[in-house]
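explain this.
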Amino acid sequence: MILEADRLQVPIVALVDSNMPWEIYKKIAYPVPANDSVQFVYLFCNIITKTFLLEKKKLKALKGHVRKEERDLSTKESRYYRIYLIC
């Protein structure tokens, strides 16, 4: 997936370890230094998920207060994000 994302020029955020091959490491735009313990990976994924859900809730609340023409504009400019967890 890292190679495909790099080919498509999608920025990558990844947990990295010191024994990761350099060819893979240099393709990661935002490396997060980490160890490979299950507890850390769980904590990291939990934080990402909670942040994503909180921002989604805020966006939904804002859309309720937006006028119709602004709402039409925001739907045209919307972006889609994919989050992959590679274990």
